[in-house]
Amino acid sequence: MAETVEELTISYEEDGVVVTEELDKVVLSKGAWATVLFKYRSWDKAKADYGPVAFTIRRYRKTGGEYKQQSKFTISSEDQARKIIDALNGWIGAK
To answer: Residue 31 has what DSSP assignment?
Structure first.
């Protein structure tokens, strides 16, 4: 596991294939509890290609000097991401 927030990743390799490819990340909060937004894509074995871009928000808790994942929420499509953005803009008010 990671000792710093910057080391956190969702990239994952299995049998020489990058099954989850991290494309970008934004650290939303740091500290004993960290929140990170990841942009990624997953390998589709059937198509032998990567699927569409997806997003996930992960919460990590630092214990024993290492961050351990506590929860996650996957935003499964760009359409769902836009709906979340629209809702937040409505609540917060675009400035």
So the answer is: S
